[in-house]
Amino acid sequence: MDIGVLLIDSELLMTGKGFDGPLNQAVRVLDGRGLDLAWCQVLGNQPARIVQSLRRSMDDGDIVFSFGGIGCAAQGHIRECAARAAGVPLQRHPGALAAIEARYGADPDRSRLADLPLGCGLIPNPVDGCPGFSLGDHHFLPGVPEMDWPMMEWVFDHRYLDLGHAGPPVEYLVQAHDAREADLLELMGQLVERYPEVRIASLPHCSADPRDLEFGVRGREAGARQGLRWLTGELDLRGYRWEARRQPAG
Fold first, then answer.
1. pLDDT 10s digits, 212-227
2. Nearest to 247 by CA among 167, 171, 174
3. In whole angstroms, what is the distance from residue 77 CA to residue 52 CA?
4. pTM of the entire structure?
5. Distances from the Cα of 51 to the Cαs of 56, 69, 192, in angstroms?
6. Distances, alpha carbon 102 to alpha carbons 150, 202, 226, in Å
7. β-strand pairing of 170-177 with 115-117
8. SS3 180
């Protein structure tokens, strides 16, 4: 099952501000469990487009974390969009209502946040008490980083405890001396074909004399080490001098 992220925020699309907040939190939680993010999509507050995107990811069977759009603001469409995408009605959830009223009392505006897709489960919110919700493998969170990460952790602890735990990713940097990227493209393709769980990037250092090419071999520790051994062995066969170092993957 691929893991994806939806960011619901029109202001983010208009200004670019805050893009790294929920996304960084999601990647940090996944890294801590030995998991990778397969995709990320940013959407504005356009209900038709949100419904279309949710239907597609529901059909794909992905695990999806959606950030934003579940609060009291006028653009909080995500509860309705999730219900439409799943083909179920909205219904006031007694557990959500009880959690909201326990924190805020009988507040009509906040009580609307308990109108959730029929059959959904709740995600406790330890910060302000207004829960998120899960609909199948889609999990809807507030889009506020200090709330999102503990709620995301809760989802993994209660729904996906058997996933991951392979350790955080690492990256090996390999500096190949007097090397041109164009001459080694086939080599990089062969590495990815042999080790599909490993990612490789290249960065030419054209100002160096002789010019250098830096490779980044990224993955979980065991896979990255295998990819590194194969890459450096091939560099040796081709007569390149190289240096390698390990660092945490950012």
1. 899 999 888 888 889 9
2. 171
3. 13
4. 0.71
5. 9, 13, 35
6. 20, 54, 53
7. unpaired
8. coil
Identity (one letter) of the amino acid at 132?
Answer: G
The four Cα atoms 126, 76, 159, 36 give a dihedral, to 10 degrees, of -100
Domains of the chain and CATH, by start: 3-159 (3.40.980.10), 170-248 (3.30.70.600)
CA dist 13 and 11 (Å) reads 5
Q: Say yes or no to pLDDT of 47 above 70.
A: yes
Q: Give CA–CA dist 141/17, Å, rounded.
A: 19
Please name every residue paired with 116 in a beta bridge, in sequence order, or none if there are none. Answer: 91
Euclidean distance between CA atoms 111 and 47, whole angstroms: 21
Nearest to 57 by CA among 85, 84, 79: 85
Q: Determine which of 2-11, 30-39, 76-85, 206-215 has the lowest per-residue pLDDT on average.
A: 206-215
Closest CA to 211 of 235, 175, 250: 175
Q: Where are the alpha helices (DSSP H) in the chain?
A: 10-15, 20-32, 47-60, 78-86, 94-104, 108-111, 145-159, 185-194, 221-237
Both tokens of 28, joined, read: 């940090």
Q: Which residues pair with 199 in a beta bridge?
A: 218
Assign 40 to helix, strand or coil: strand
Residue type, 190: Q
